[in-house]
Amino acid sequence: MVFNWFRRQFNRSESPAPSPAPEPQPEQQEQAEPEQTEEAVDYLAWAKAAYQNIQQQEQQEVEPSSEVEEKAEELEADVTPEETEPAVVPETVVEPSETEPVVESATESEPEPPSESEPEPVMETEPEPEPVVESEPEPTPAPVSFLERAKAERGARLEELKEKAVEAPEPEEKRRSPAPQELDEDFLWSAEVLAKQGRRPDEVSLEEINWLQQLRQGLGKTRRGLINQLKAVVGQGPLNEDAILEVESLLLQADVGVEATDRIIEQLQAKLREESLPPEQAIAYLKQLLCDILDYPGGKAYDTTFAPEQDVLNIWMLTGVNGVGKTTTIGKLAHLANKSDYQCLIGAADTFRAAAVEQVKVWGERTGTDVIANPGKNTDPAAVVYDAITAAQSRNVDLLLVDTAGRLQNKKNLMDELSKIRRIIDKKAPDAKVESLLVLDATLGQNGLRQAQVFAEVAQLSGVVLTKLDGTAKGGVALAVSQQLGLPIRFIGAGEGIEDLRPFSSYEFVEALISG
Ligand SMILES: Nc1nc2c(ncn2[C@@H]2O[C@H](COP(=O)(O)OP(=O)(O)OP(=O)(O)O)[C@@H](O)[C@H]2O)c(=O)[nH]1
User: Could you identify the atom of ligand 1 that is nearest to the CA of residue 332?
Assistant: First the structure.
């Protein structure tokens, strides 16, 4: 049984697992409008049924027969170390030239915006000491020339990057694996959010519940810093001048941005003048306002389901400044696609940085996705894209994910490169469904939007992936993205783990922000 994560439903040809519990179900099981079913559904009963169903699913999937279990235990001893090791990637094939800029750490937490004048860091600034022949404990021949030394350093650096790329997600995966131990408050909250969207208790998985909890936890800082206070003010009735100022400063602090803030205040004020709403209804109205901003970016209506189209090659180009989580996003998207039964391929077209290719390969290994890369020096990213499309076409791939360079020396280079890639795509795959997704780091708040502006000018952007929503008090930037950039948010990342990225749902986002 395959759950399509993009469409948030089981694939049509397959029927969902039979419901184990004859508990009451929501009256409206079809695409119900959020909130409409509120009174009709007994959420506790719904949550219990979902809980029971998940436990049964987990038992079926996780509990092996005693024979298999023994074998698994035997194997575990051998397999565990491998699992904790970073995925093995082929020998480094990319040999950047001496002139090619060397990468900063993949785990760099404070990426800088693209700068026209800023020089890229050069190899000589690498912090690692040069290998000294005398102290080398390994009997390997010591590198003698500058090039050999540089190669060795680069190899060590890449190994470090590979380790980092797989180390971080692990605790998340471990945390997620067990079935829920109790029907706790977190579970009840997630169940209610799903039930209110018309979902059936026999159709939800533990992963969905876990994701909602992750989102809710991730947005905790924004919620505590902003929304709780906002709720208190809005719940008091008509907004007087002081209340307006307070709401305004709360929204701006959460990086909601001036435009979206003005819009929220205007509409709230108008509504509260019109009728005096009890606090609960005022909050419901506020939620609706936020959903509207997110669902109609730039005033335009977008299809809220964002999934690879059937029977056509889908090409998703990922753009964004280094460090925002582009590579990680590609890995997570490949994982999501594979899980949802799409045939996926990755094109490593960030040839500007050698390590970027290696990082993508690590994610390819990790997710079982082939990566098309060019092993030559200073390769043309458009040529990589050409090869990737050829491979995708011959392999009947559904989704080709293309990694692109984030920081070229200047805007013109970036523009030239992205438009060349686009030309190749249009020529080589004229029927493909192309999406250009900008990856934005939520922790950068409004600064991230300034970067976005540059990309919006050079790439034909069609959507945004908002990463690092976990642990930031700037979750309000999602509203600024919709309002200021006029682009729909397609995916959100709330953690470093492979599972920590999901299609964006304005309803779930706003619930996690306000009612979480
Ligand atoms: N907390 C958190 N960290 C994230 C998220 N997405 C990515 N990261 C981390 O952000 C760091 C940078 O991610 P990358 O995927 O390497 O970013 P990039 O944009 O490809 O940058 P370069 O590797 O420099 O090209 C890594 O440490 C990731 O684990 C997220 O949603 N939450």
Answer: 6
Q: Is the CB of 374 under 6 A from ligand 1?
A: no
Residue nearest ligand 1's atom 21 by CA = 323
**Domain locations in the chain as residue ranges:** 185-299, 314-505
Residue 156 Cα to ligand 1 middle (Å): 20
Q: What is the pTM assigned to this prediction?
A: 0.74
- Which pLDDT tens digit goes with each residue over 469-505? 997 888 899 999 999 999 999 999 999 999 999 999 9
Q: Which atom of ligand 1 is nearest to the CA of 324?
A: 19
Give the architecture (CATH level 2) of 314-505: 3-Layer(aba) Sandwich (3.40)
Neighbouring C-beta atoms of residue 54, cutoff 10 Å: 23
pLDDT tens column, 319-352: 998 889 999 999 999 999 999 999 999 999 988 8
Query: Is the CB of 288 within 6 Å of ligand 1?
Result: no
Interface predicted TM-score (ipTM): 0.97
> Does the domain spanning 185-299 belong to CATH 3.40.50.300?
no
Closest CA to 331 of 298, 358, 302: 358
Ligand 1 closest atom vs CA 471: 1
Residues in the chain: 516
User: Quick check: CB of 107 below 6 Å from ligand 1?
Assistant: yes
- Sequence-ordered list of residues with C-beta below 8 angstroms from that of 315, at least 6 positions apart, any chain: 389, 392, 399, 400, 402, 425, 429, 432, 433, 434, 435
